[in-house]
Structures are given as structure tokens and as C-alpha cells.
Amino acid sequence: MLTVWGRRTSSNVQALMWCIGELGLPYRRHDVGHRYGGNDTPAFLQMNPNGTVPVLRDGDGDPIWETGAILRYLATRYGADSFWPRDLITRTNVDKWAEWAKLNIALNFTGPVFWHVVRTAPQDRNPALLAQALDVLGCKLDIAEQRLASHPFLAGDAFTPADIQLGHILYRYFSVDISRSDRPALRRYYDGLNERPAYREHVMVSYEELAARP
Ligand SMILES: N[C@@H](CCC(=O)N[C@@H](CS)C(=O)NCC(=O)O)C(=O)O
After folding, report:
1. Is the CB–ligand 1 distance for residue 165 below 6 Å?
2. CB 67 within 8 A of CB 106
3. What separation, in Å, do the N-terminal and C-terminal C-alpha atoms of the chain show?
4. Where does the GST C-terminal domain start and stop, copy by copy (predicted)?
5. What is the rounded distance in angstroms from the CA atom of residue 173 to the CA atom of residue 116?
6. How would DSSP label each residue in 156-195?
7. pTM for the full model?
8. CA distance 144 to 121
9. Residue whose CA is closest, atom 5 of ligand 1?
10. Closest CA to 6 of 44, 43, 42
């Protein structure tokens, strides 16, 4: 049995839960972080000195933190070859795109864009800063667009952790109040993710509770 510490509204928890859902693994999850608290207790900090979510334990194994490391653990332990290839070269291609998506898409979206338009009170927002952040993100999304125009999934022909690292922020990207350039391949890809039950359950989650009030 897997145990997850982390609230449903955390994007990193969503990536992990989506992975668990895709792999069909049994789990229990504790709401921790943000308004639920519980991530600054000695017991939690002993598991993760960063005080961040998610944290995963598989049975009574050591706690694992850092979403990318957790995804690699689950993929290696429980994933089929198409999800996390045993062949080093093929797997490194998946890992490369997963790392790229986390560093270039998720990190350029979550702080500079999502926090800015959802978790910052309207009077504190800075349109020039947001425009700059959208430009930076847009350059990276153009790379995803190019890739997805010729491949059904980010790393190639199969759904892999690279899609989790890219796709887990797309629900928010496509639903927050920002301007979006036309990227038909990315939109088609996102529409496909919407058809996946685990995506609908774990990623398409209201972020209302995170919204800053004026
Ligand atoms: N690099 C870490 C980042 C973890 C992180 O920053 N988590 C956020 C939620 S997405 C957090 O714990 N925020 C504090 C809170 O929820 O109270 C990872 O990829 O897992």
C-alpha cells in the first residue's frame, strides 16, 4: 500500500496521484500543506526536511520526496516497459522529456503565471511581469507544440512520465484567465488527456481554495 502526504490542490501532488492512478496502485492520501497544515511538524520534517508535499512511502519503506524522483521510483517499480522502458537509451529519452517538462513548463507556469493570476490579490498583480512570464513560458510551449505535432505523446508513441510532468499543469494552463496563443497540437494533446480517468480524477481539481482574495 502506498501512503501519500499532500493536498489534492498541489500541482506536484496531482502529478504523483495521476501517476498512481495510471498505474492502478492502491493508496491512501493524507491532506497536508497549505490550509491543511501539518507540513511543519517534527514528524513531517523528519520525513521531508523541506516541509513540502508530496511525500510518498511505499509500505514501510523510506519516505521519498521530490516529485520527479517519486515518479521514477513508481515507474521503475510498477510501470510497464512502454511507460518506463528498461532499455537505457529509450528510457533516457523519456527521462529527458520528463525533466525538460518539469523544469521548463511546470516551473515557468506555476510560480510566475498561476501564482500571479490565482494566488496573488488583484491589486498586487503586475501586468508587465505577467506578460514577461507568459513570453518565457510561450517559448517553451512552442517546443512542446512542435514535438506534439509529430508525436502523440511528449516522449514519442507511448504515454510516459514525461506526459505527467507536462500534462499535470495543462488543466490550470487552459483554465486560468490568461491570453493563450493558438497551439493546435498542444490543444489536441490536452483534449486527449481529458479523456483519461486518472487525469480527470486527480488533475482536474478545483483550485478555488487557493485563490487570493482582494
Ligand atoms: N521540488 C519539489 C517541490 C515541492 C513543493 O514545492 N510543493 C509545494 C506544493 S506544489 C508545497 O509543499 N507547498 C507548501 C504547502 O503546500 O503548504 C517537488 O517537485 O516535489
Report:
1. no
2. no
3. 42
4. 87-214
5. 12
6. BSS--HHHHHHHTTHHHHHHSSS-----HHHHHHHHHHHT
7. 0.98
8. 31
9. 52
10. 44
**12 CA to centre of ligand 1 in angstroms:** 6
Distance separating alpha carbons of residues 187 and 29, to the nearest angstrom: 31
Strand, coil or helix: 47: helix
Residue 54 alpha carbon to ligand 1 centre in Å: 7
CATH code, 88-210 = 1.20.1050.10
| CB-CB contact of 121 with 212 (8 Å) | yes
Enumerate the domain spans of the chain: 2-78, 88-210
DSSP calls for 85-150? -SSHHHHHHHHHHHHHIIIIIIHHHIIIIIIHHTSS-GGG--HHHHHHHHHHHHHHHHHHHHHHHH
pLDDT tens digits, residue range 72-129? 999 999 999 999 999 999 999 999 999 999 999 999 999 999 999 999 999 999 999 9
Ligand 1: nearest atom to the Cα of 66: 20
Question: Which neighbouring-strand residues pair with 64?
Answer: 56
Shortest-distance Cα residue to atom 9 of ligand 1? 10
The pLDDT confidence band at residue 213, using thresholds 50, 70 and 90, is confident
Sheet containing 55-58: order of strands: 27-30, 2-5, 55-58, 64-65
Ligand 1 geometric centre to CA of 177 (Å): 23
Domain 2-78's class? alpha beta
